[in-house]
Write a sequence for this structure.
C-alpha cells in the first residue's frame, strides 16, 4: 500500500521509485537523481547553452563533478524518503526539509524515461543581497551570518528564505516546461510539505527565459545587482526575484487526500 506520507507523490509500480507529475505537461515527471544520470549530466553541464547561465557547476564539467553532485542529491532524497517511511502511521502530513524528487524526466511513448533537466528548492544562498530600509542592497560582510541564521532554522519554519535552481535540456526549451516545474514543485510540495512561504530566486542579468519562468509564477523582479560577481572568469549581474505566499494561504484543499 502507498505510504500516505508521500502525498502527493506517486510511486512507479515497476521500480518502486516515487515521482511527481507536472501539473500541465503530463508526460513529464520529477524523480530522485540516479547514479546512472552521470553520463547525461556531463553532456548537459558542458553545453554552452546551459553552463553560461549557471553559477555552481564547474566548467569543464568532469565525471568526478557529476559523481559528487549526484552524491549530494541522492543522499538527502533517500533520507527524506526514509523519514516519510518511518512516519507512515502518523495521520498528519509531516513537514520535511527537502523535496526528494527534482530530476526532470520525459516519459516516452514506450515507457522509457529521458533525463531533461533539474529543478531544486534549497535554502537561500545569496545572503549578500538584503532588503534594508525598503531598498535592496549588497552587503558581502553580512552574507555568512545571514545564511547561517537562515540555515539554522528548523524545517517548516515559515521565516526560512528558500531559493530555486534549475536548468533544462535545450531540446525542450520554450515549451513552458520549467514554468510548469516551478509551479508544480512550489505548490504541490514546497508550500504544503516543506512549509515554503518565502522564496528569493536569482538569475544572471539578461537571462530573460529564467526571469519569465519565475514572473509567470507570481514572483516579482525586485532588484538587479549590476556586476555582482565573477563567475567562470566573467563578471555577471544578478536579477533578484521574490515570491511570498499569500497571507490567507489555504491548504485545506491540499490536505484533502485519499
Ligand atoms: C531558464 C530555463 C530553465 C527556462 O526553461 P523553459 O522550459 O525553456 O522555460 P519556459 O518555456 O517555461 O518559459 C520561458 C519563457 O521565456 C521566454 N524567453 C525565452 N528566451 C527569451 C529571451 N531571450 N528573452 C525574453 N524571453 C525569452 C519564452 O518565450 C517563455 O515565455 P512565454 O511562455 O511567455 O513565451 C531554460 O531556458 C534553461 O535551462 N536555460 C539555461 C540554464 C538556466 O538559465 N537556468 C536558470 C538559471 S537561474
Amino acid at each position: 500500500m502507498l505510504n500516505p506520507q508521500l502525498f502527493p507523490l506517486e510511486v512507479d509500480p515497476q521500480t518502486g521509485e516515487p515521482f511527481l507529475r507536472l501539473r500541465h505537461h503530463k508526460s513529464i515527471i520529477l524523480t530522485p537523481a540516479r547514479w546512472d544520470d552521470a553520463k547525461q549530466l556531463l553532456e548537459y553541464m558542458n553545453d554552452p547553452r546551459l553552463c553560461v547561465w549557471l553559477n555552481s557547476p564547474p566548467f569543464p564539467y568532469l565525471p568526478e563533478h557529476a559523481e559528487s553532485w549526484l552524491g549530494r542529491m541522492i543522499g538527502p532524497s533517500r533520507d527524506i524518503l526514509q523519514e516519510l517511511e518511518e512516519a507512515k502511521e502518523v495521520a498528519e502530513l509531516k513537514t520535511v526539509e527537502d523535496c526528494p524528487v527534482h530530476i526532470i524526466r520525459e516519459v516516452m511513448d514506450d515507457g522509457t524515461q529521458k533525463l531533461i533537466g533539474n529543478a531544486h528548492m534549497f535554502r537561500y544562498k545569496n545572503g549578500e543581497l538584503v532588503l534594508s530600509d525598503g531598498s535592496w542592497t549588497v552587503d558581502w560582510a553580512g552574507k555568512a551570518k545571514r545564511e547561517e541564521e537562515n540555515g539554522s532554522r528548523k524545517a517548516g519554519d515559515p521565516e526560512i528564505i528558500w531559493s530555486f535552481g534549475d536548468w533544462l535540456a535545450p531540446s525542450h526549451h520554450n515549451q513552458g516546461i520549467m514554468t510548469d516545474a516551478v509551479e508544480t514543485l512550489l505548490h504541490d510540495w514546497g508550500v504544503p510539505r516543506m512549509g515554503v512561504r518565502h522564496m528569493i530566486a536569482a538569475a544572471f542579468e539578461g537571462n530573460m527565459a529564467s526571469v519569465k519562468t519565475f514572473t509567470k509564477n507570481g514572483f516579482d523582479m525586485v532588484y538587479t545587482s549590476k556586476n555582482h560577481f565573477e563567475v567562470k572568469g566573467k563578471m555577471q549581474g544578478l536579477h533578484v526575484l521574490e515570491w511570498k505566499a499569500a497571507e490567507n494561504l489555504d491548504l485545506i484543499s491540499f490536505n484533502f487526500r485519499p
